[in-house]
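User: Predict the full complex structure for these chains.
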Amino acid sequence: MPESVGVRRAQAQRTRSGVLEAAAAVFVDRGIQAPVRDIAERAGVGVGTVYRNFPTRADLVTAVYRHQIDACTALAPRLLEESASPFTALALWTDAFVDFLVTKHGLGAALGSGEPGLENLHTLMLDTLVPACASLLDACAATEELRPGVTAYTLLRAIGNLCITGPDYGQADAKGMVALLLAGCRSTV
Amino acid sequence: MPESVGVRRAQAQRTRSGVLEAAAAVFVDRGIQAPVRDIAERAGVGVGTVYRNFPTRADLVTAVYRHQIDACTALAPRLLEESASPFTALALWTDAFVDFLVTKHGLGAALGSGEPGLENLHTLMLDTLVPACASLLDACAATEELRPGVTAYTLLRAIGNLCITGPDYGQADAKGMVALLLAGCRSTV
Amino acid sequence: MPESVGVRRAQAQRTRSGVLEAAAAVFVDRGIQAPVRDIAERAGVGVGTVYRNFPTRADLVTAVYRHQIDACTALAPRLLEESASPFTALALWTDAFVDFLVTKHGLGAALGSGEPGLENLHTLMLDTLVPACASLLDACAATEELRPGVTAYTLLRAIGNLCITGPDYGQADAKGMVALLLAGCRSTV
Amino acid sequence: MPESVGVRRAQAQRTRSGVLEAAAAVFVDRGIQAPVRDIAERAGVGVGTVYRNFPTRADLVTAVYRHQIDACTALAPRLLEESASPFTALALWTDAFVDFLVTKHGLGAALGSGEPGLENLHTLMLDTLVPACASLLDACAATEELRPGVTAYTLLRAIGNLCITGPDYGQADAKGMVALLLAGCRSTV
DNA sequence: TATGAATGAGCCTTCATTCAT
DNA sequence: CATGAATGAAGGCTCATTCAT
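Assistant: Here is the predicted structure of the six-chain assembly.
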């Protein structure tokens, strides 16, 4: 492989990263439905480049959030191991998830939206976040710290919804509400 | 005032009501972002008529939900009076609010969305629902049934968010999550 | 019905006709695939108006040619009646069809193209032109003036193809070739 | 000239041939308007390579068909020599031409289309096929087997048009219609 | 020479909004 | 007042073509 090819690939990778960064920024500013043109402009590239790297909006959205979703997923077993009780682990994991969501305006809504074209993201959630959360819930159930009937998917959706923030309902509010929701999940025994 | 004027006014009122009904139906079917033309068609009127009666979409949305929001508001003092405890009243009132939200596709999201053009709805919430909810919370606080720090606006936003339903997170899920949130709001004393 | 409505409808009809005329002209100049914008511009209307009147390109194409196709169809029985022999009637009818085709650049190609979105036109051909032509062919067969094996659809497609003209192959050439084809269809008995 | 230059040239030639083969295949599958990228992909080269070898689409199209067109051209004198009559030779030559056309999706249309960018192909037809066909026609005229007034160019265009096939008008139909056209060209003496 | 990433013009389509009747 | 035709901005997407490596 001649060096020039490597150079070009590196450049392409940088372009791709630039698009991802721009998309992330635009998503925060204007939501996940922002025009592709705006993302391209922010990234300083043509629309064609965006489409080349991410043929569908779903690909773009997924790529933007994949790293953090994966990180969040990987956190679950670690917390379970290190925490005093499974419920503590669940609470800590939830904190991390919320931190992730509230800094990504529109992601909560996106995670839940049944919009065609966001199946990727939904699948990602189902495949990684749901099992991670389920493992925590199972552990809680084993120690009877959890009200019965709480499922991972529903809980994640609820948290995702609670983290849809706005002008008068900010990150702190979302965190507070999630904390209350979790408190409500705790077994009253 | 000649009789014909009265007739004309009555007719105009009927037209307005027809648009409201049509809009309510369309909002349920296709969400609050449904094309104006669809609403006009459903109402059997021209788009111009819709615009005449409701210059902005916000006007229309607000008008559509005002009755139910007012009813919900009026429910609060009644429940407070009739219930065994303030917290029971809060739970019952919340039930009614959730029933309202989950049957109105997109309303929960609309209540929270900071979108320009929906300020009316937001204002309505601030002016009626928030005080109603606040009265219940105050009563709960007085009997020490409520965790401190829960404010009416934030709680309403949280409930609104939890009621954003979708294919895999339906009305029952939303109700369950709101119930858990409320449980979490209850004082642990 | 107030007069004003009639006026407006008349105006709308004029707009529609204007679009049809513009489309016909643009089709001649640039083929049936011409951009919708060009048609709108030529008609002096906005693109929305074109779409309102003809939601799909097929609708527009069909509308442009429908009158003449119908006229052509209606001609068949008349010619059959008035002509000395069925084959003469066929020849005269073919002349008319060719006159129609050669003045409509792109129609021949369109009639044959299997492009999705032009099914309308194809259906129109199947429903009207094919039976008309078949009636002439049947009459010719009855008098043994026709080589066996010539079907209406195939003949029409062939004629349509022969009428795809261009810079160096004009209307006269197309007519000559169709005449030769017809001569070849005549029974050699 | 160092050996490496020869190696490089041979490699370049192979690349060029690969593009031609790929283009031929893609043209058959998807027509002459197929995206350049598809051809490059099929050939396993970059689009730049396609453009380097064939700066315009016309160059590519012409190159793809040149061999077969030349073969067809070369066939004329041979057939004329071997056949019982000039008209028989014409018929056989036509068969070969039709065989060529019907297996090349879009070529018939391309031969006739006055599209800018396909002048090369048109020129090739004028320079080789037309003289070849003319020689046959001249021979037919000399033996009075041909209706007067049939010119080579027009006949070729007509045949090309008749070979524009589609879903309901296939190769067999095209062949039949060309046969009828030829029959019509035959002198009735 | 070969590559393929990047560009952006161009076309399609939808829908909010206006305004003459 | 009501109507709905007309408008055109806005956004999606494709692909021919260029050019740095």
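Residues 8, 11-12, 15, 37, 40, 45-49, 52 of chain B lie near DNA strand F (CB under 10 Å from a C1').
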